[in-house]
Amino acid sequence: MTIRQERHSGLGRGLSSLIPQRSMPSGINEIPIPRIQPNPRQPRQRFDAEDLEALAASIVEHGVLQPILVTETLDGYQLVAGERRLRASQLAGLERIPAVIRQLADRDQLEVALVENLQRSDLGPIEEAGAYRALITEFELTHDEIARRVGRAKSTITNTLRLLDLEPRVQAALVDGQISEGHARAIGGLPVEQQPRVAASVVDQGLSVRQTEEFVRRLREPRQPAMAAEPRARLDPELERVEEDLRRRLGTKVTLARSRKGGRIIIEFYSDEELGQLYDRLIGGSA
Question: Domain residues for 74?
């Protein structure tokens, strides 16, 4: 395994245009690893242990092929970009690491770290959204300005930021990979108090993004029985609770309707696949 190279084309201005250039005697310095402090603005929060071990093995065999980027401080250095390489070098037992030293403002440090991770596709959706939020709240950048700097469409910035409005348990499911970004965007169309229950249903039932979008659409529809000729009479609170429990358990629209001698339960499905899933949940076998 070799260290992946950053892709400078097609993503904003690229790292080289974000880093102020100045002439240096050698350009690259070997600096002591213990003197390097982590980047407090590192947008990436999760590092895969197996991936780091594989990179460490490559470093033992081939060395660090690409220097990290640091800025000088009063008592050493602060990492700007290359935390994965730094951590792997520590695992490999290195005492020094090749580094490029640049003087960068706080905003530039966050921006460079963000662009590097985006170029490597290393950030999760919530991490990416958190970095965008920091650029907005700490440095007062607009969505347009962020889009230009990181080479994303403005709509992508806006939609990614909306992920931070999800209920925390739904965000956690996205971070852990239980649901995808597409699932999360669909669930975000519901009131916050409904989101955890729906996310749990999506995970338990293995719904696709399209099925989740349909599920959410049904939940947002007014409760009207498909075959009712007149406006539906309001159910008593206990039956409303039963109807809601059935809807969550079956993952589809369920309607209870009273009649003189009893009533009926209407369970809707929209494909043969959904019918089979409903059969499994109700009967415990396959249709």
Answer: 14-160
Domain boundary among 160, 185, 205: 160
Catalytically annotated residue among 50, 83, 138, 273: 83
Domain boundary among 134, 160, 186: 160
6 tagged catalytic: no
**Number of domains the chain contains:** 2
pTM for the full predicted model: 0.56
* Domain identity same for 59 and 154: yes
Residue with tokens 């880093």: 19
Inter-CA distances, 273 with 38, 172, 276, Å:
50, 29, 5
Q: How far apart are CA 175 and CA 25, in angstroms?
A: 43
Three-point CA angle 207, 161, 210, nearest 5°: 20
Statement to judge: residues 257 and 145 lie in one domain: no
Please tell me the distance from the alpha carbon of residue 152 to that of residue 149, in angstroms, as a whole number: 8
Model confidence pLDDT, tens digit, residues 225-278: 444 444 455 667 778 888 888 887 777 778 887 777 778 888 887 766 777 777
| H or E element at residue 279 | helix 272-283
Helices (H), 151-192: 154-162, 168-175, 181-187
